[in-house]
Amino acid sequence: MTNDPTPDETFATDVVRRLTAAGHTALFAGGCVRDLVLGKLPKDYDVATDARPEQVRDLFGRRRTLAVGESFGVIIVLPPRKSGAQQVEVATFRTEGPYLDGRRPEAVSFATPEEDASRRDFTINGMFYDPLAKQARDYVGGQRDIKRAVVRAIGDPHERMTEDKLRLLRAVRFAATLEFELEHETGEAIRRMAVDLTMVSAERIGEELKRMLADQHRRRAVLLLADTQLWPVIFPELRDLPRLEEQRWERMTAALALLETDRFEPALAIIAAEMFDAIDPASVRFPEHKPEGLDEVHDLCRRLRLSNEETDRVCWLAARLPSIAAFNRLSLPQKKRLLAHADAPLLLQTAEAVMAANSDDHEPIRLATEILARGEHELKPPPLLSGKDLIDLGLRPGPQFKAILDDVRDQQLAEEIATPEAALIEARYRIDAIE
């Protein structure tokens, strides 16, 4: 358990204290208890209580509560202003009816803490903690499984997974990020039901996958996806990679292990790059080069319901990885244009992991890092020549207009010219050549 309470823990404890003072049972519940038992700092706190939703609202006041899931017994309690704390979700102890849609129960009934624990997903998430008595309440063996480093479904694994098919993926995420093992029966249930993940919305799958790939144990997550047969469901384009392309699979997973970032996009870009045809770095022509398969990467991102910004970043990183491998062959203007991109630092992190996994020469990374360090004033200086300058020189807008601007810009980035006067001379020379 943590020693010095955070604003979140302090506020959540105050919620428990007020409920208890009003004659109710109230306990921390779920993931925050798991994290406290593991000695980790919870990201948020949930409270479970025998108080009914209307009692929670009456106790804390309508202005301090939100009835976001009142039919399921869930009320949000808002923290005091300037407390620095997050809101707390307060849920009434409950049992649940059938999950006919594979996501939500058709009905709920208010119940005891023991009954509430038995309807949760995994034993490590089924514990309660009394912050006033500083005592855990464990009706499902969660503490035992944490000691054993095991992710185990509560009760019948098949029944738990059938209730909410996303639990197939959540089990893998917990096993990967906590460095736990999947309990045998739980793992077997996931393998038997893997195809049922297709019944889960793409957005929910995408959110779970993003959390896996943003974690430092992303390689373990990917290996578990393959082991549980979930990999081909999420990545049908690469369904045979773990079985039939052993060397590619090992290099890809090694790159994921070497990746040092808390962003998910670089990891997804490394996976997505496997959709491309084999690329000879010598053939790369930046920025015109578009690897075969880039459209499939874009489709993958859309299928996972990534935002436009996330999609653009994953596609750009995946497409530009070969440019770093071929960095020494690029001209100085090409290098600067590549590194002027806002995500260039992320690209170098990604490329470094890929090249290390392939035992490639690190000279391109060293050189790219050196050029990147020069800063925006060298990578993206204000243009020395504008379209207005060309019009003043008598050139009408047309096919040659952009070509001349690009040529002079290349000379500027190549450090062959450094003043507007020199740029005008070069432009005049090209206009004269046209005429």
From TrEMBL:
Q: What is the organism of origin for this protein?
A: Stratiformator vulcanicus
Key words, A-Z: Magnesium, Metal-binding, Nucleotide-binding, Nucleotidyltransferase, RNA-binding, Transferase, tRNA processing
- Report what the protein is called: tRNA nucleotidyltransferase/poly(A) polymerase
A molecular function (GO) held by this record is: poly(A) RNA polymerase activity
Q: Does the keyword Nucleotidyltransferase apply?
A: yes
CDD domains recorded: NT_ClassII-CCAase (cd05398)
Q: Which InterPro entries match?
A: Bact_CCA-adding_enz_type3_sf, NT_sf, PolA_pol_head_dom, PolyA_RNA-bd
* Family designation: Belongs to the tRNA nucleotidyltransferase/poly(A) polymerase family.
Gene Ontology biological process terms from the UniProt entry = tRNA processing
Domain (Poly A polymerase head) spans 28-152
Task: Read off the lineage from the record.
Answer: Bacteria, Pseudomonadati, Planctomycetota, Planctomycetia, Planctomycetales
The tRNA nucleotidyltransferase/poly(A) polymerase RNA and SrmB- binding domain is annotated at 180-239
Q: Which cofactors does the annotated protein need, by name? A: Mg(2+)
Listed EC numbers: 2.7.7.19
